[in-house]
Amino acid sequence: MSNQPEARPQATAQDGQQTMAVERVSQLAQAIEQEVARVIVGQHEVVRQVLVSLLAGGHALLEGVPGLGKTVLVKTLGQALELKFARVQFTPDLMPADIVGTDVLTEDDSGRRGFAFRHGPVFTNLLLADEINRATPKTQSALLEAMQERTVTVGDATRTLPRPFFVLATQNPVEMEGTYPLPEAQLDRFLLKIQVPFPRAEDLVQILGRTTGVDNPEAGRVASGEDIQAIQKVIREVPMAEPVVRYAVALIMATHPEEATSPEMVRRYVRFGSSPRGLQALGLTAKVRALLSGRYNVAYEDLRAMAYPVLRHRVLLNFEGQAEGLSTDQVIAQVLEQVQPDAAPAGRGSGHGGR
Asked: Which region holds residue 193: left if phi is over 0, alpha if psi is between -120 and 50, else beta?
């Protein structure tokens, strides 16, 4: 009984820290969203998902037909954050050196010649890769190391990118002319793939008024790179109960056609399921959503809500699925319908993993 008075203040202090963490993340998210809303009309869910990706420390891929404001959204977000911003317009003739940089021959005042590294636009905090699928696969692959390891290797020298570092890429549907499908390895490095829908009629009225009028609103700075990095640390401290972890694993396993418990649609139409990186992305983004929802713990609903942007680019359809005109979102819907929280393998694998 003598230990009880010491335990209670410790729990109270921990609860206070959790409340402060939730409030801090929520206030920052609201401030960023309000600034973005000064420029972008509607698209609240798209803005929220991009924000989730940034707070989780990952990269986001925005897909939609031209003219939906994808580029404006990313530029506006760069204005709201006190981060170094760079933009690369991807074209078929773009070369890898145009992104990462290259060694150039220089001459000093005394006439001596040597090579010096000229930094490419990737050396920034927030990189807008505009219409990334209009460049050739060779150029697209130039971002692989930068996105995964936050480094760039040119020749025999490896250079570290600034922190934080985000890639926000836009792409047009691959059915459109002049586009190259992104390699699966690069797609997997995007934390989220976000679909940008066509605006509603009432949003179009506001868009017309804003874009054809005299006023040209801009977003103000509301957060710095240090704020983002501090919140990223807080997010990783958000706990996930074991049943929630088991449910996340069950969702990932259900995307693999070789699993006997996978939905019929997965076994018939899916070629490859999600990678382990997809599980990591699902857990991390669920933690962000929990904080943004005012909770310091991950719920089943957080996993289900983030399943679509996390998995839609990690579930690959086979030829039959493509011929049927299926979308990965339809497959994910079947997975979420069949795999319920109470169906998660709570005791499976308890005899492994060093317990």
From this structure: beta
Question: What 3-state class would DSSP assign to 157?
Answer: strand
Element counts in the chain: helices (H) and strands (E):
15, 13
pLDDT, tens digit, 9 for 90 and up, residues 147-204: 888 998 887 888 889 888 999 898 877 666 667 888 888 888 999 999 888 878 877 7
Cα first-last separation, the chain: 31
Structure tokens at 131: 């219409």
Q: In whole angstroms, give the CA distance from residue 312 to residue 194.
A: 9
Q: Compute the residue count for the chain.
A: 355
Q: Residue 60 corresponds to which tokens in the numbers above?
A: 């986001």
241 and 284 Cβ atoms separated by less than 8 Å: no
Q: Are 140 and 180 in contact (CB under 8 A)?
A: yes
pLDDT tens digits along 242-270: 999 999 999 999 999 998 889 999 999 99
151-154 vs 126-130, strand pairing mode: unpaired
Q: Residue 243 is which amino acid?
A: P
Query: pLDDT of 330-349, one tens digit each?
Result: 999 999 999 988 755 444 44
- pLDDT in the model for residue 320: 92
Whole-model pTM?
A: 0.82
In 3D, which of 202, 176, 148, 232 has the Cα closest to residue 63? 176
CA distance 84 to 223: 12
Q: What are the b/e assignments for 87-107, b being 16+ CB within 10 Å?
A: bbebeeebebebbbbbeeeee
The Cα–Cα gap between 303 and 248 comes to 7
